[in-house]
Structures are given as C-alpha cells and as structure tokens.
Amino acid sequence: MRSLAVAITDTAIKNHAADVEVGELRDHRHPLLLRFQKSRNKATWYVVRYEQGKKKRYRLGYWPTLKTRDAQELVVDAIKKLVKGEFVAADKFDNVCQLLTWYRDRCMAESFKANNRKKAIISHIDHHLIPKLGDIRLCEINKQCIDERFFLPLQANGLKVSTIKHMFYTLKPAFKRALNLGYISSNPMSDVVFGQHVTKRIKPKECALLITDKALLVEGILSQPILNRTFMMIMLMFGTRIGETRNLKWAHVHLDECRIVIPAELTKTEDSHVLPITGAAMSLLQEYRDATANRKPVYLFEYDNKQMTEAQAQYLVRSASAGKWSAHDLRKLARSAWAELG
Fold it and tell me: Can you tell me the distance from the alpha carbon of 221 to that of 229, in angstroms, rounded to the nearest whole number?
C-alpha cells in the first residue's frame, strides 16, 4: 500500500480512507503520520522522529477519537517528552468500555477509597454504565448521546433520581481522571451537567439533628476522648464526609496558612477542597497536634500507629451518638448552621 505526503486534515483523511491502496498519510507540515487500520474507519496517529539516522514512530493516539487539529497541537509537547524520555501516548482508549474498565480497576487498587464506595463503583460500571454506554466511541460522546443512552433509559426504568445521580458521578469523574493522567487528550464529558438532563429535584432525607440541638450535641462531643471529639468536630466544623475525614493527613493541614487542602483523590466528587481554618478550628487542631506530637503520625486519626479504618470510623460515630444520628447528619447540620449564619 502507498504512503502519501499530504496536508492532513479530517476531510483529507475521510477522502483517502475510501482508497484501500493508501496505507498511510504523511503530513508534510508536521512530523506526523496517520496509518489506516484494517477497517478503514479508524487510524493511528504517530509522531515521527529521526534518532541516530533512523526513523522511529511513536504512537500518539487514534483517529477519529483524536482529531487532526488536536493531534497537531500535541506534536510539539510530544517531541519535548521524547527528548526527555517521558513520552506517553495521548489516547489509550477508543471506547467508553475501555475507559470505564480502566477506571474501575484503578479505583479498586486505591487503598483510601471506602469499601462501600468501591462496591458502588463496581455496581454502577458493570451493571449500568458499560451495558448502556460501553460500545460508544469516545469521539462520539456528546450531550445528546448521553441523554438518549443513559439518562432517559434509567428514568424510564423508574430509578430514583438520587440513584441516577450517583451513577452519573461515577461516570463523569472517570473521564476527568483519565484526562488528568494523560490517558485521553480531551474530555467529552466536561460540559455534560446533571441538572440539564434531570430536572426533578432530589428530596433530601430529613436530618436527625436540628439547629436547636447543636449546643447539646457539641457538649456531648467535647466530652469524648480527644481523638473521638476531634474527629467529629472536624466533620461538624468543616462539613467533611466521614471518608474524607478519616483519610486526612497532617500534610493536608496548613496551620501557618490557616487552611486544610483535601486533594481531589480523597473526595467523592474528585475535586480538591480548600477549607479555611477559623479561630475555633485552629485551637482544636493545635490542641490535637500537641497531644499526638510524640508519635509523629502521618494521618490525623490513627489507632496503634495505623490509619483509622472505615469500620473504626463508623463505630466511633455510632458509639458517640448511641445510634441516634450519623456522620452524614453532622454534615447536614454544618450546612444548616452555615445557612443560619448567612
């Protein structure tokens, strides 16, 4: 098959794809080559570089997932990485199934993720997301596609809005993580917003704690041992989830800058959280730091020099509340208190 030197564009690719005698296209403006796959409706991008007089090809990604303009923009950065020995292909996945399978396996390997969250991710991906979206190529993802293949079928099946939202927030972070780690060159899910597809409001579960309970609640929490009370007061002061709180490291706490930075990999939404430390929170954290300084712990909350487990965190809250309220109720109460303060 022939190799043609042309100015590669998406139109030129489609035109030459019909000619089975053409095996590859060489861009005479960029060190870029496109080789057609057997099906002719897919092709592989390569960056071309001469090393010690020999021509070498490095896979950049796949067309049409990686469009011509995007491939051309990646060439300069790819060459720089090749020089440093750091080159990584821009697109490792062709369809949604490949991306979600990678994301599921990666989540299972993350020790900081709670077991119940891992089980939810497996269930969402294996039983709903891959069956409904798995065969869609990444270049075909758009709002209409997600609406027709994901949102409408789930609503037609009578699933609760909250359940659909939980599945969506497994799907969207998968694409975001793949982009951040360089597995894909663009994120087709970035402008897909849950509220644009599901307009029914999720009715929140009633909180077991009322604003009028906060004085007695705080009094009860402060009577607990220092680890227990600090753990629950952080959830109450900052509205953090139990998993985020359990995974906090002292490296995330910046007392000199009066802020706590929770990295994206520890949050449910996979967005980093920056929490300002108030005067009361500063006193709480300083007291706790002084009480644990002799052990030099990595995590804020440890038992026997090991990070607090999910089961230990849940037991701590159940014991303090005598089963009357949950960690999530502390988060809800924090939000209500903030609203009251304006």
Answer: 5
Residue 229 has pLDDT above 60, yes or no: yes
What's the confidence (pLDDT) of residue 260? 95
- Rounded Cα distance between 95 and 114, Å, is 28
CA distance linking residue 243 with residue 222, whole number of Å? 21
DSSP secondary structure, 224-260, as one string = S-HHHHHHHHHHHHH---HHHHHT-BGGGEEGGGTEE
**The pLDDT of residue 211 is above 80:** no
Q: What percent of the chain has pLDDT over 90?
A: 36
107: Cβ contacts below 8 Å, ≥ 6 apart = 113, 118, 121
Whether 217 contacts 333, CB under 8 Å: yes
Residue 294 DSSP symbol = G
SS3 71: helix
Residue 158 main-chain phi, psi, to 5 deg:
80, 15
State the Cα–Cα distance between residues 134 and 95, nearest whole angstrom: 7
- 201 HSE (CA, 13 A, CB side): 3
Helix (H) or strand (E) holding 44: strand 43-51
Side-chain-side CA neighbours of residue 141 (13 Å): 26
Kindly report the length of the chain: 342
Element (H, E) at 177: helix 161-180
In the structure encoding, which two tokens stand for residue 27, read together?
Answer: 């861009």
Q: What is residue 322's DSSP assignment?
A: T
pTM, 2 dp: 0.54
Q: What long-range pairs does 111-115 form, CB within 8 A, spacing at least 24?
A: 112/243, 112/247, 112/265, 112/266, 113/243, 114/243, 114/310, 115/310
**Distance of alpha carbon 65 from alpha carbon 326, whole angstroms:** 45
Q: What is the pLDDT of residue 259?
A: 95
